Amino acid sequence: FEMTNDGKELHHAVFFRLEGGKRLADLLEALAGGTEPRWAVPVGGPQGPAPGRMASATVNLRSGRYAVLCVIPSGDGVPHVMKGMAKEIMVTGKGVEKAELPKADVHIKLVDYGFELDRPLRTGKQLVQVSVAPGQPHEIVLIRLMPGKTWQDFAHWAEKPAGPPPGDFIGGMAPMVGEHDTQFTLDLAPGEYAFVCFVPDAKDGKPHFVHGMAKQFKVAA
């Protein structure tokens, strides 16, 4: 999937598989009530390109009914899904439950609460494969930090956005569970970067970065 952000705010596209005969309307009703039901399974999607940019993701989808949502909050704190940024789709096909993915340059495993890379990211184009350990869903938000800024600066800004962000949104992978691996592409310039997971924790509802799920790193020239 390729997602172009033609808006003025940050957006992503999270694919939720709807189980048990549920529909988008059922999911919207549950989210309005403050719950994310077990029958809505997040399986990834293109993550947060900045306005005017594009992000891509490769996601293994079973046949069935899905909801595609943007759950990023607007400037007034209301998630975009509650402003109508949601769509129901059907995935059709028989006999294929898991397609083969291209060979990746880097593998990242998302665990409670960290990012495990089999090798460092580098400058230039590269294909990143993502897996999630059994348990909670996780995401990768990739930011290129402004000079002198840290992932903590970015996390603080994200909680109460005011003024320009202390980093540039590069992309990543939208929230997903450990069902199938997914992939996304990067084209990195030298600089200081960070991975951050904003998914609410299943136990206390706090973003996973509060529990340490953030990683700052340098990409050398």
Structure characterization notes:
The chain has 221 residues and is mainly β. It is 8% helix and 37% strand. It has 2 helices and 14 strands. Strands 3-2-5-6 form a 4-stranded antiparallel beta sheet, with no helix packed on it. A 4-stranded mixed beta sheet has the order 8-7-9-12, with no helix packed on it. The radius of gyration is 17 Å and the shape is globular. The protein starts with a strand and ends with a strand. The mean pLDDT is 91.
How would you write the strand order of the largest sheet?
3-2-5-6
Report the mean per-residue pLDDT as an integer.
91
Q: Give a quick account of the main beta sheet: strands, pairing sense, barrel closure.
A: 4 strands, antiparallel
Rg, Å, rounded: 17 Å
Low-confidence stretches: none
Oligomeric state of the chains present here = single chain
Number of DSSP helical runs: 2
Can you write the helix and strand succession as a string?
Answer: EEHEEEEEEEEHEEEE
Distance between the termini: 29 Å
